[in-house]
Amino acid sequence: MQRKLxxxxxxICILFVVLIGRIMYIQYTSxxxxxxxxxxxxxYDSTIIPFQRGNIVDARGTVLATSVDVYNVxxxxxxxxxxxxxxxxxxxxxxxTPTVNLVAECFPEIDKEKIRTQLEEHPKSQYFILAxxxxxxxxxxxxxxxxxxxTKIRYMAFGSRKNTFVSIHTEALLLPLLAMPAAVM
Length: 185
Known about the structure:
Layout: H1 2-41, E1 56-57, E2 63-65, E3 70-75, H2 77-89, H3 96-106, H4 112-121, E4 128-135, H5 136-148, E5 152-154, E6 157-158, E7 163-170, E8 173-179
Antiparallel strand pairs: 1-2, 3-4, 5-7, 6-7, 7-8
């Protein structure tokens, strides 16, 4: 009985060795041809699927929790200080003063001195949180004032999250912000 078992085990091992050898032979001789066939069948199409988080309701349909867009306002001191030095080299107006005034005007919870202190104490910092969970209404007012100033804006996605890097450009103004939509319950 044990002899038959060893014989079957040996036959299976030989078959696996032959199978692996055949696969290696096909890969070596025809690998490029099969690779072109496979790559020709692939689609390189991407679509954005919009999503809406749902409400949490009880058995009677009363809303217990809902999703609300809020934003974190992040200051990039390094970029702002670099733009300030570039403005001085080009003999233009200060970049920091209009930036601080615009942020303090649009976001009442952010103090002008807090921004100036951060710019002076941590000039190389690229991520300083000025405000958390800013409501959409305040961010919309900020964007409206930005549009009134005839500014340009660019958005860059970071990673898989829907974080948005917002830079406000005018001739003498650059305010890097990171607006991070989040759900609040």
